[in-house]
Amino acid sequence: MPPPFLLPVLLLVLPPSPQAAAAAEDICIVGSGISGASTAFFLTNYTAPYPAPQLRVFERRDRVGGRLATVTVAGEVFEAGGSIIHPRNLHVRRFADLLGLTAKTGGDDDEDWLGIWDGARFVFKTLRPPPPGSSWLRRKLHGLANSLLLLRRYGLSLLRMDSFVQEMLQKFMLYYNGFESRPVFDNVEEMLKWSGLYGLTRRTLEEELIDAGLNTQTISELVTVITRINYGQSTSISGLAGAVSLAGSESGLWSIKGGNWQLAAGLLKTANATLHLQEGIESISDAGDYYVLKSNKGHEYNCTVTVVATPLDEVNITFIPPISIPPRKMQHTHTTFVRGLLDPKFFGLSSVSDIPELIGTMELPDIPFSCISVRKKHGEHDMTYKIFSRVKLEDALLDQMFSTREETIRIDWPAYPHYQAPEDFAPIILDGRHLYYVNTFESAASAMETGAVAAENVARLIISRLPLGLRAGLSSAAVPEPHIESSAGEEEGPRRVDL
Ligand SMILES: Cc1cc2nc3c(=O)[nH]c(=O)nc-3n(C[C@H](O)[C@H](O)[C@H](O)COP(=O)(O)OP(=O)(O)OC[C@H]3O[C@@H](n4cnc5c(N)ncnc54)[C@H](O)[C@@H]3O)c2cc1C
Questions:
Q1: 441 Cα to the center of ligand 1, angstroms
Q2: SS3 assignment for the chain
Q3: Residue 31, ligand 1, Cβ within 6 A
Q4: pLDDT at 94
Q5: Fewer CB within 10 Å: N-end or C-end of the chain?
Q6: CB of 55 closer than 6 A to ligand 1?
């Protein structure tokens, strides 16, 4: 029940008939990935203990999670899309705790034995890891020896790289501040300026790192290996995407046991959202007080608020009237799982045991893949590998790379934006009314956590701008105090409702 002082207001603003109320009270979310699921979660969470408006989530595929998905090879489950979670990704950490999901550290993405391949030879290799079951002391000494090896090759650049990442992380942590010290943002530029991260989107990673004092060898080898692994791109990505990418090489990374997609599934369930699986939205039309969403099943839904929680760059949704967003290309990452054995001859080696478990690559023409990693050793001559590449790896090439190949699984992801500097951002409010776009924030950096951070802001923005009829019943204590950072004249209609 709404607090008694709200009742007179409610009576004034309630729609005239129950039918009209039904038509006007849905919040519709297009996309069931981590961004859409987080939006649904935060909308419900921030309006508790009062019931949130009816949430509908549309997903064109037959499963939730979007770019969080697993594949099974030889009975083992592997992450095929978003896989690693940084220890300071606080929203995702909280989601996992809340949903009772088990964190998995080490193993899946915690490679030890790195080799940097230039297409002809390994220009750098860390030490082969001690055998499983080795003593704590032996493992410690191994770690120390590797640190010394890295320090000898890259020198102080390693420390400078770390400072660069820590500075970015410190600023990013501001997005977890309480409502009293964190405004609601209606555009990405202001959101980034507020935390001090905007400058990093104006220059390339390479420019930033040269200014930070890194030497060119570190940038062309270690840094490039990391950006190619995490974003399939070179060091000409923006400084911010680059810093996020470098953070993904730190220690303490984790994932959800059984698959990260469970985050999206659990959040949608917690939000009590009505999930429309295998129902793609084909058009979104502005009908005045609400939007009409037409689906590929021939259904129409009237939604007071519509949230687009998918990159719009490769999906075919017709907006009526049309919206205008800056062009953005998605970087495709081809993820290939191979069960078999790499051929040492392909790497100019005589024994398979000399091939590092994580092969990173430099930005040179003719290297057909970004990285190869051993995901599981089933036996001495039977492994599961994961390969990232910018183009499809044809059978003929795989036959050269592998001496045996029992199973091959290929996925072509429109994986993340193709980053550039300076970066352009689409609006969060696409039409100046109630059509929101979460994935504009992906132009800053693409990750599970950035999706959740963007979604949290969008949820607060929606609540702060809801028409009175919908906002009715929300607890004023629970609703974040809306202090909107805005560029002047960007929108029309009520931006804040004082009850
Ligand atoms: C290979 C790869 C590796 C990655 N590695 C990491 C990593 O290690 N760590 C990390 O944090 N992040 C990583 N990422 C990035 C991370 O996976 C994404 O940033 C994140 O999952 C994006 O979530 P999202 O909800 O914004 O979008 P998506 O997950 O893309 O969700 C959008 C959903 O919308 C649906 N949809 C689209 N159009 C329609 C329509 N018209 N109607 C209905 N539904 C529609 C799609 O089917 C999809 O399910 C990686 C991504 C890839 C591809």
A1: 13
A2: CCCHHHHHHHHHHCCCCHHHHHHHCEEEEECCCHHHHHHHHHHHHHHCCCCCCEEEEEECCCCCCCCCCEEEECCEEEECCCCCECCCCHHHHHHHHHHCCCEEECHHHCCCCEEEECCCCEEEECCCCCCCCCCHHHHHHHHHHHHHHHHHHHCCHHHHHHHHHHHHHHHHHHHHCCHHHCCEECCHHHHHHHHCCHHHHCCEHHHHHHHCCCCHHHHHHHHHHHHHHHHCCCCCCEHHHHHHHHHCCCCCCEEECCCCHHHHHHHHHHCCCEEEECCCEEEEEECCCCEEEEECCCCEEEECEEEECCCCCCCCCEEECCCCCCCCCEEEEEEEEEEEEECHHHHCCCCHHHCCCEEEECCCCCCCCCEEEEEEEEECCEEEEEEEECCCCCHHHHHHHEEEEEEEEEEEEEEEECCCCCCCCCCCECCCCCEEEHHHHHHCCCCHHHHHHHHHHHHHHHHHHCCHHHHCCCCCCCCCCCCEECCCCCCCCCCCCCC
A3: yes
A4: 98
A5: N
A6: no
Output the pLDDT for position 490: 28
Q: What is the pLDDT of residue 473?
A: 42
pLDDT digits (tens, 9 = 90+) for 139-194: 889 989 999 999 999 999 999 999 999 999 999 999 999 999 999 999 999 999 99
For 194, residues 6+ apart whose C-beta sits below 8 A from its C-beta are: 174, 183, 185, 485
Per-residue pLDDT tens over the stretch 408-424: 999 999 999 999 999 99
pLDDT in tens, 426-441: 999 999 999 999 999 9
Residues in the chain: 499
Q: What is residue 36's predicted lDDT score, i.e. its pLDDT? A: 98
In short, whether 260's Cβ falls inside 6 Å of ligand 1 is: no
Mutate which of 39, 84, 310 for ligand 1 pocket (most atoms within 8 A of beta carbon): 310
Confidence of residue 52 (pLDDT cuts 50, 70, 90): low
pLDDT at position 470 is 55
Measured in Å, residue 105 CA sits from the centre of ligand 1 at 22
pLDDT digits (tens, 9 = 90+) for 201-246: 999 999 999 999 999 999 999 999 999 999 999 999 999 999 999 9
Q: What is the pTM of this model?
A: 0.90
In what order do the strands lie in the sheet containing 26-30? Answer: 274-277, 54-59, 26-30, 305-308, 435-437
Structure tokens at 396: 């003929």
Residue 106 token pair: 């080490």
High-pLDDT (> 90) share of the chain, % = 81
Read off the tokens for 278. Answer: 């295998």
Closest CA to 440 of 456, 451, 431: 451
Kindly give, in sequence order, each residue whose CB lies less than 8 Å from that of residue 107, ignoring residues fewer than 6 positions away: none
